[in-house]
Specification:
The structure is a single chain. It contains 12 helices and 9 strands. By secondary structure, the chain is α/β, with parallel strands linked by helices. The chain folds into 2 domains: about 5-165, 3-Layer(aba) Sandwich (Rossmann fold), CATH 3.40.50; about 170-275. Helix 7 runs antiparallel to helix 8.
């Protein structure tokens, strides 16, 4: 985990989650928030259940459950979320919480505060109130900022139910260390990844100065690992068609952003324009 998050921040999060506090991870897309949640669950020896909050437009079905026919009779089937909060050894990841609907927020409120319960009107009698099992822990991820047009502002009351930590993008050097630890690459492949990491760093530097509109994400670099180091694609191909494709939209500004990074790649000796 040391290549994904600052060790002090990591220690704080683990201590808070172990103590039963709800934690929210904010940060840019592809920074490693969800990956960190999986690693956190592993380090705490807990089952990890990821709830995609971006798909909760029908919140009652997604978070509570649904009716189905069983031998001619209608029965209510609880959701995976309901099952997860009843398993004492679970870390529930509320992924992309800032993309959830208002109905989803209202359902989650009593689960995340001192009540630790879920009310399911569709169930009968005593089964309507589902208690969160001892040992269940909650962690959420969220993209916050003008860059994320599909997100919504988080209700202050919901935010107050979490301790919030921001996960910044890791540096190119940290990214290479992570790749060395997690992947087995030939020498040529690792050489290519170091070049890509330099361009990754450069994009973050320019973004910080307001000179380009977006950054290359950590995820984008890791995702191209299968493409490097072989005979099928040149490094220029990988950069042009995979990594820099995020800039190819109907905007002259974004096209110029891509050209700025192409020029930097060419300065590294990648022969970018010749192979583009």
């Amino acid at each position: 985990m040391k290549f994904v998050i600052d060790p002090v921040k990591d220690s704080m999060i683990r201590k808070l989650v172990s103590a039963g506090k709800n934690v929210m991870l904010t940060g840019a897309t592809g920074a490693g928030k969800t990956t960190y949640c999986y690693k956190l669950a592993e380090s705490l020896d807990k089952d990890c259940v990821v709830v995609n909050c971006g798909s909760t437009q029908d919140a009652r079905t997604s978070l509570l459950g649904f009716f189905e026919l069983d031998n001619g009779n209608t029965k209510f089937t609880p959701s995976d979320f309901v099952k997860a909060i009843q398993n004492p050894n679970t870390l529930v990841v509320l992924d992309e919480l800032s993309r959830a609907s208002d109905d989803a927020f209202n359902i989650l409120f009593p689960v995340l505060d001192h009540r630790r319960e879920l009310r399911i009107e569709e169930q009968d009698g005593s089964e309507r109130i589902v208690k969160v099992a001892e040992g269940v822990r909650f962690i959420a991820t969220a993209n916050i900022g003008m860059e994320y047009s599909a997100t919504r502002s988080l209700d202050r009351a919901l935010q107050d139910r979490f301790m919030t930590f921001n996960l910044p993008y890791i540096t190119g050097e940290q990214l290479i260390d992570y790749i060395k630890e997690e992947y087995t690459l030939p020498e040529a492949g690792m050489s290519d990844m170091k070049q890509i990491a330099s361009i990754y760093d450069y994009s973050h530097n320019l973004f910080g100065k307001g000179k380009i509109g977006t950054r290359i994400s950590t995820r984008a670099v890791i995702d191209v690992i299968p493409l490097v180091g072989g005979e099928d694609f040149s490094l220029a191909d990988v950069l042009n068609h995979a990594i820099l494709s995020q800039y190819e939209q109907d905007s002259s500004t974004i096209v110029n952003d891509a050209n700025i990074l192409r020029e930097f790649a060419d300065s590294l000796g990648i022969s970018f324009f010749k192979n583009a």
